[in-house]
Amino acid sequence: MTIALAIAGGGIGGLAAAFACRRAGCDVQVLEQARAFSEVGAGIQLGPNVTRVLHGWGLGARLDDLSAAPQALVVRDAARGRELGRMQLGGAFSARYGAPYLTIHRADLQRLLLEAARSAGAKLRLEARVAGVEADDSKVILRLQGDDHLQSDALIAADGVWSAIRDAVFGDGAARPSGHIAYRALAPQDSLSAGARTGDVNLWLGARTHVVAYPVRRGELLNVVAIVEARQRAPSQDWDQGGQAAELLRAMGSVDGKLRELIEAMPAWRVWSLHGRPPVASPQAMSRGRIALLGDAAHPMLPYLAQGAGMAIEDAHVLARLLQGTPGSNVAAALASYANERWRRCAQVQAGALRNAAVFHMDGALRFGRDTALRFLGERLLDQPWLYGFSV
């Protein structure tokens, strides 16, 4: 008997799960509370651990067409602009890990997954907010806003860092503010000076701040994200507040002239407060009976390893594999297996992101030691075989 699967949330994680689970033979319904499928934000970095999954799903040609393929990760000192280290990407990196390192606009990735889920036969419902959940040993009943009801064999909560389902079912409180504020901007590369344009991933490290810039949409656009440890803005759940270059530069302190020019050249800045949770502590934190958490609902993380979307896509792949061929009576066991397989990996990536946050923002003697290590060891420090070589 086909599993009836409800997925709450139509973002990248929810749509990835919808497509993967349809391929696995599930009857899938996606419940998105918004009036349209849309994605807030600009760029995403996709390491080979993620592109390997997407290629395996048969989405590689479309993914490659929408993405940029950086040839290097270049790390610089934010205050002086000097190069500290680099890691070659491109063909050698792809050969080492069996999949490419790509950068893509969030909206392009979501559109790709939306089209794939729709073509695979997933049912997609908009303006479908989950207002209540009841579950027993045989089913899950969802009450939608407006008193509509839906019954399914299982529920996957992919409703993001502010997951209402996590709050209702697991009751472990809201995600916590990190004290880190992210500024993002996007500009056509041909609108920038020649020195500001790039085909690589560029990372500038400063005291309690860093900036990353990389191409998206086949290299036509430049995505820039700056993160500062700043208290001038109160923590907010709003992912799309307005910001100003002058405000960002004040928070960053002393920066290299070329980096300042890049920041000032961006046509508009958007701002959000970064929130997260401690690393996942057990499989019980990701599943309960016939309900499981996926992506940011399960393991929100700071963006210092560029793996938030990647972990959601890995989750979707494992979920689908474990649900394939499972009878409805064994769904809870399959979800428990999913949580058991995923929680350590997700906790490791969450912890790695927290470590990178400290390393990226070092000051004083620690900063000097970090920079010296990068200059001498470079690629050996920047490469992450445990991360990129992982296969789900």
The total count of strands amounts to 19
Task: Give the CA-based shape.
Answer: globular
Mean pLDDT: 93
Strand order of the largest sheet: 5-4-13-14-15-12-17-16
Roughly what percent helix?
25-40%
CA-atom Rg in angstroms: 21 Å
Q: Report strand %.
A: 25-35%
Report the sheet with the most strands, covering strand number, pairing sense and barrel closure: 8 strands, mixed
Which class do the helix and strand fractions yield? alpha/beta
Describe the 3D structure.
The protein is of the alpha/beta class. 36% of the residues lie in helices and 27% in strands. The protein has helices spanning 12-23, 48-56, 60-66, 90-97, 106-120, 164-169, 245-252, 257-265, 308-323, 331-360, 364-377, 379-382, 385-388; strands spanning 4-8, 27-31, 43-46, 72-77, 83-88, 102-105, 123-125, 130-135, 140-144, 148-152, 154-157, 176-188, 201-206, 209-216, 221-229, 241-243, 269-276, 287-288, 291-293. An 8-stranded mixed β-sheet has the order 5-4-13-14-15-12-17-16. It has a 6-stranded mixed β-sheet with strand order 7-2-1-11-19-18. Strands 8-9-10 form a 3-stranded antiparallel β-sheet. Helix 1 (12-23) packs parallel to helix 5 and helix 1 (12-23) runs parallel beside helix 9. The radius of gyration is 21 Å and the shape is globular. The model has no long low-confidence stretch (mean pLDDT 93).
